[in-house]
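Forum > Structural Biology > Help requests

Title: Can anyone predict the 3D structure of Acetoin utilization protein AcuC?

Hi all, first post here. I have the sequence for Acetoin utilization protein AcuC but no way to get a structure on my laptop. I'd be grateful if someone could post the structure tokens.
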Amino acid sequence: MNPIRLDLTMRLARSLNVIESRNLGIIEPFVASDEELEKVHTHEFVEAVHRGAENPRESIPEFGLGTEDNPLFAAIHESSARIAGGSIAAAREIIAGTAQHVVNFAGGLHHAAANKASGFCIYNDAALAIQELLDSGMQRVLYIDVDAHHGDGTERIFWDDPRVMTISLHESGISLFPGTGFANETGGPEAPGTAVNVAMPSRCSDAGWLRAFHAIVPQLTEQFAPEVIVSQHGCDAHAKDDLANLRLSLDAQRQNMLDIADLAKRFSQDRWIATGGGGYNVIDVVPIAWTHLMAIAGGQPIPLRTEIPEDYRTYVYETYGVDAPRTMSDDADLWWRSWEVGYDPSDPVDRTIMATRKEIFPLYGLDPWFD
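Reply #1:
Sure, ran it for you. Structure tokens for Acetoin utilization protein AcuC below:
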């Protein structure tokens, strides 16, 4: 979660003139108040984060603070609350109708639960944005999470709320933190079928990932008919990321962004909030992926074979002593097999798709023969 991810993303976006040329403006993120944070987090948890900021040598394990993945530091509350404020501000822009698409690439901290920090995540900014939308009177918000890790915190916060559908494509919990997110985790008794989990096999590549996405997400989006889509674009599913075991390319991640933008245009009146998330290859992957995300949100995607400007590459080399990539692409082959051409029971991706469809689709009148 090194903050250089954010600096390099913005530098690359500016170098490619993404902000100015795509009708994008910048919203100043604010530090969310305790009252705002407590719309999804417990009062006791927020108090514990404050206490940890004041005494960063203290460990508060019952709230997930002072642990290996969530070490305490003096600015832990302020910095986390500012990221949260950015996503709340995004929701307010959508509510006011002053923006159609908003990106908070510092956000997407999807492991944070109502009463516990987890997996580098303190406050769950995506959940706070969703709650802001619900508080404005919206009745259906779709959350799509394509991080390598299961979006467990966001899912659990809305586990029993029928107004929110969470769809998470991630590496299976058999092989990756947080060990959850299986097909049979489908929502609470008041909201059956609103938690959708697609637990992909490790070493899954572009073709399998895109096949699974298109076999599940568009169909459920159409049936749920969301008023807004909130998405999480952790890019740690990339083949060069060391914290997961998937094999995606930048090209496939960009395609996922285009797919979600298209779903928003077709099914949610083109209202879309996009966040960042995981991503730990801070030179070769993260800045490129999230610059693509901003350009797509601005309605003018960056062509895949666009060369990365020399001023940016020079900055990276002089600052970090490594060579930045030369283009905005991994030059991958994005062919994928449509679900409609048939099911292969020997393919672990197909078994994953079938497991999720069997659990969820009959609840929405899809694949009724599973019922």
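The chain has a mean pLDDT of 97. DSSP finds twelve helices and six strands in the chain.
Shout if anything looks off.
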